[in-house]
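Quick start: load a record and inspect it. Here is MMPL family transporter:
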Amino acid sequence: MTTTAAPPQPDPRQPQRVGPRSVRPGRGSPVVRIARWSATHPWRAISLWLALVVGAMALMTVVPTQSMSDDDYGVGESGRAAEMIRDADLGQAPSEVVLVTADGGSLDRAAGEGAYEAIRSGAEGIAHVDGVGPPVWSDDGTAMLVPITLEKGVDDLDATVDALHDATTEVADSHPDLDIAQTGGASIGNQVDERVGEDLGSGEARSLPITFLIMIVAFGALIAAAIPVALAFSCVLTALGLYAVVSTFIPDSGTVASVVLMIGMAVGVDYSLFYLKREREERLKGASTLDAIEIAAATSGRAVIVAGLAVIVAMSGLLLTRDTVFAGLAVGAMLVVAVAMLGSVTVLPALLAKLGRWVDRPRVPGLWRLNRRLGTGGISKRLVRPVLERPKTALALSLGVLVALSAPALGMTLHQGTIDTLPQDIPAVATFQKVQEHFPAERPTIEVVARSDSAADTAAVKGELEALGAQAQRDGLASEVNPVAVSDDGRTSVLRLTTVGPEGDVANEEAVTELRETVVPDTLDGTDASEWAIGGDVADTMDAQDAQRDALPLVVGFVLLLTLLMMWFVFRSGTVALLTTGLNLLSVGAAFGVMTLVFQNTWAEGMLDFTSPGFLVDWVPLFCFVVLVGLSMDYHVFVMSRIREGMRRGLSTRLAVEYGVRETASVVTSAAAVMVSVFAVFATLSMLEMKQMGIGLSVAILVDATLVRLVLLPAALLVLDKRLGKLRVPERRKADEAPKVAVPA
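Running the structure step on this input writes:
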């Protein structure tokens, strides 16, 4: 009996050149058709892209980005209380305060009175200043407060606040023996916005050169390195211009521009890198420039579209929170990802077609040789070999490491940002902290709002509220009680209580809970008040946290389910879809664990220049979760696509995994380096939210591109080998739709 030896498997370590058995790239794919049109009409494609970028920037100039107002933050019972106050026109007028203290501690009363007269004289002549109240002295006589009331109903008070600051500075200069400083909600908001703008400029100034240097190392040629950076930056500008129009309906909370820059630079460079690397690879194998562009479109271009859609789907989950802050962040991120996807399959092929082989000029001699060396995947091959030899051991060890990194996340504490989480070197913030120390009455407020069906019930309801205020003060639930305010129609009454602790004190939240559950129901239920609600600063924070906690399972379930379905649709394998979801969760868990270790403790304060508040800002983990699930899909789609290519070419699972990891090593490493560097830059900014987000995203991408890609994914694929049969089944397509990739003899 004779046997026929099985044909030898191709050596994945050797490049397979395009030969007679290669076929022309797919003509039926929309991505390939768009890339072909752009490559054959480069000037039109480039002109259209420039028109889009310039038009979006013009929109940003003509339509300024709209910021959120206080009304946009209301949720739950506190939102209902705020609406009742607005309807009754009982809202407090905006105000600023000027704090006067002395260097020696004791403030001379005559000097303080003289400073007050100068402050009053300077403020009363400024537009939209409603009045200057009498000076308020602290109990120990060491500080004096000057309240300044601004006009209600004025849309923009920035000019008024700036003029007040100028007047206050003049008084401070004329009284060098006194410390005179202004603060208030508008002052803090303006100075925080200014700091965010400075941070944004600083982030741009640092991330662009760092990214460019990484690209030079990745390509070894200046033009090839400049293309992804320039394209990513143009995507950021375009997205910001488009969001300016969208902000009319979904206003900006103040962080959208930072998020757009961070996400836009990361994905914009990554998507260009994926495409450019594949086009260069095919040219080195002998393909013409046009054929190389079409092959890149049919392979990397498709992966870019899938990865981009995954990010957009993940970000859309934030819309389920029905929170305006999350909605703005989600829309901004989705816009910049969509623009990056569009640029990578339109203007990028046009640039590559126009430049041809000049894209690899001018070369940096040493880096060019290093890049060619790294491009062979020799380092990754050596790193992944032990994993392929002992997959079960590698799987167990890597899982243990990720579980250990994730464990601290079990003790994660979330809280809304407070005055303590803002940079304390902002003058208005530092002054506000001093005001709270000297004047407890300037602490946050609790508002009890009651509405009656008839004005005839006003006296009874007002009396009940006055009794309620006295009881709250006796029980230690409030430090100060203001007179009850009644609307003009007599139907709505508001009792304002001053909290017992400064902003962020847990005792304030306990007081709101006690008032809601016991004191107010016992007082107002059964009276003439037809409706009541408790709002104010503390209640706003509590209700926002409750709403976010309630939405968390819905958002997480939505994101995981849709990304799971996307991976199943792309790879037609439930095993791959489940594996990708599990690996994403492990990366996110590791990031959350590190964030908890860094920001809920004090050991890293000196390195990152922050003061630990003992918690993570509540919106950061949820935002990081949806971003990370989307971004992690980039690498998994790219690596798994190459592994599937190898399996469809007849390679065994082991060789296909080695082939996929080796062929994607340089591009994934470069892309991860870009993302980590961009996110790490944000960890150095002054805003605590940006620091926390930068650390979380950096750690997750680093873990995903190293431990997950080189250890967990290869080991898991080998362990699950028998369940991966569907990856070997080619898609049904016409002969001329198959991508022009090398087929082993």
